[in-house]
Amino acid sequence: MPVRVVLDAMGGDHAPRNEILGALAACKELGGELELILVGRQKELQPLLTKEGVTSGVRIVHAPDVVTMDDEPSSIIKQRQNSSLYVGLAMVRDHQADAFVSGGNTGAVMATATMLCGRIKGVSRPTIGSFFPTKTGRPTLLVDVGANVDSKPKYLADYAVMGEVYTRLMLGIERPRVGLLNVGEEDTKGTEVARAAHELMKALPINFVGNVEGRDILSGENDVVVCDGFEGNIVLKFAESILSFLKEKIRRYADRGILQKLAVAAIAPVLRTVLRDMDYQEYGGVPLLGVNGVVIIGHGSSSPKAIANMIKRAVEVVQRDVNGHIERALQ
Amino acid sequence: MPVRVVLDAMGGDHAPRNEILGALAACKELGGELELILVGRQKELQPLLTKEGVTSGVRIVHAPDVVTMDDEPSSIIKQRQNSSLYVGLAMVRDHQADAFVSGGNTGAVMATATMLCGRIKGVSRPTIGSFFPTKTGRPTLLVDVGANVDSKPKYLADYAVMGEVYTRLMLGIERPRVGLLNVGEEDTKGTEVARAAHELMKALPINFVGNVEGRDILSGENDVVVCDGFEGNIVLKFAESILSFLKEKIRRYADRGILQKLAVAAIAPVLRTVLRDMDYQEYGGVPLLGVNGVVIIGHGSSSPKAIANMIKRAVEVVQRDVNGHIERALQ
Predict the structure, then answer these.
(1) Fewer CB within 10 A of the terminal residue: chain B, N end or C end?
(2) Which of A149, A245, A260 sits opposite B191 (nearest CB)?
(3) C-beta atoms of A214 and B235 within 8 A
């Protein structure tokens, strides 16, 4: 049985071109495992498919409207019912598709998915996690990175469970190490919410390693690090800014003179290799965990390769029944 | 009138050697502007001073006890009254010295300073800020980085005022740009506390630029970024871990073979220069803002150069009457 993936072809910054190229790359790689449905403006999509020589195998579902980055997430349910985002998620809700993939407005995808598909039984709040590269090469999932702020302790405990299931099934880790992002090791440390969450997490049937500090995210010693979406989003955005910070520093160094320019030209290939796994495009987007339906969200600037990775990720998440495992874990 | 600075000679990891070398370097540079007092075990300090050829100009105040990294901050007031930390801070309280400098247990210094010296009138909570390097080269002060968690909105507004005074007087910036660390631009974004703090900060007579995101700390566009000590400490520790993350990535690359080793050897000088301003040792420690007395806290691993910078920073903070300006700003 192929996995039916709906791709929001209008979502990203370079839509629909990157989406179509990414979709075709995924189809080529996955063959009969994947049934791909493109949702968006038929008149824009069909010619591009034809141009790529695709006459069958990829279905288009027409949706005349598009959600923009300026749309208030809560308004889409009422005002954008003909958007590719809404139409695509409704297909998942109605079991006409198994997964939805989009590079668009993250808040919009999340709000609409939660309202249309509902939460998995037992989930207090759906969450979005993001993988971080680490010293050891083994990525760490930081969760929540912005779905919820002012999380109650129970929400944090649920993020821990969902993150544990996800990394166990998707990365093949037997007993994922799960930590709570905090400001010190002792369980008396941190905010009131962190202390309460610590107690809840201690009682979960997972490999809870206790508090971890800001310096432990990149260490590679933890598979899942749990936090509220407030600090999670701040850390994620800070981390994303580091690459451009380094590039700017290197650029200014090169500007000092011809010798410096030559030195920088010499080191560029080394740095590219070293910093490659800070390239978030490789990770195949991030899952929205806790909704009844598989939803993968990516950066708006996703390349065709990144989009293909997101589709492949969606197929894996369906095949490994991550949502079923989450529901059982939360019983 | 020389500024009287008490240096906790027993505080750091390499005490008292680094402290003495740093102290002598500062004395050499500042001459009559500085009156340096070393506090610690006379029997350990005197021989080292003699060895360095110092017979006058640096005074020793004896303190037989030392606060360790394991001491609970709240216990020092009762149990370590003969420690260099307590004795030194008591000298500031009693106006026998103008400033206290220490590379020791940050929590201990902060708790003891607050209890012994008290808060500047109008300050809700003293705070510790940390400078971050930025794209433009102009550092950004992130405040609070761990003095307080679960800050109320009024505390955040006070951090803004204190940070603004500090950067204005110490960095010579006419109208420091002050932002609130948050998860989006709109003032409806963020936690309940952040939203309330936003409103308070809008009403302050400072150049409040609104919300700034995690990616804006390294941008160089803001002089002060305000946050609760919880996310501040997490971001600070995350940032500190980046250098060792990069070094590890480079090391693993070099391990691949002889060509890679040569490439890394070639790029090492460039990287050292580029990354030099991520060297926190250059910044001269961080001020504890809001206590009645000038207190500069540094890393335990501070080098003699870093300690000299901390002493110089203390002298400047006294000379520019930062505390007087803070009190007036909070009236």
Answers:
(1) C
(2) A149
(3) yes
Gap between the Cα atoms of A272 and A249, Å rounded? 15
Same domain, yes or no: B271 and B313: no
Are B197 and B97 within one domain? no
For residue B156, the enclosing domain spans 124-282
Q: Are residues B277 and B134 in the same domain?
A: yes
B194 to chain A, any CB pair closer than 8 A? The answer is yes
CB contact under 8 A, B135 and A194: no
What is the number of other CB atoms lying within 10 angstroms of the CB of residue B127? 31
Distances in Å between the Cα of A134 and the Cα atoms of A111, A169, A211, A217, B246 are: 30, 20, 18, 7, 10
Helix axes B322-329, B153-171, angle to 10 degrees: 140
The continuous run of DSSP H or E covering B192 comes out as helix B192-202
For chain A positions 266-325, those within 8 Å of chain B (CB to CB) are 266-267, 269-271, 273-275
ipTM score: 0.92
Task: Show residues of chain B in contact with A183, CB under 8 Å.
Answer: 146, 149, 229-230, 233-234
B214: enclosing H helix or E strand: none
User: Which segments of chain B have a pLDDT < 50?
Assistant: none
Question: What digits encode the pLDDT tens for the residues A246-263?
Answer: 888 888 888 889 988 888
